[in-house]
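Same chain as my last thread, 93 residues:
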Amino acid sequence: MAEFERELIRERVKAGLAHARSKGRIGGRPKVKRERDKDAKLIRGMRAGGDSYSEIAEELGRSRVQPRRAIFQIEPLPTRPVIHCTPVEAEPF
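reply #2:
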């Protein structure tokens, strides 16, 4: 009985989503539009001078995360190289 009710709920949800899509609605959380930080170059200079992110944030009156975000808006984090390795077959005993 519960499986039948679950299936009904699934169908109604899918129908509702399809109806919303037909009206132009897109699901999910809206994307954040961040403008480039006007202090990014200043923050980068302070960072090059040896200041920590906490010190920069305190001096500019921001949260600790914001200076880091501002720097990586200019230059994104480097990605790690992907290393592909072939599996080695174990020798039988």
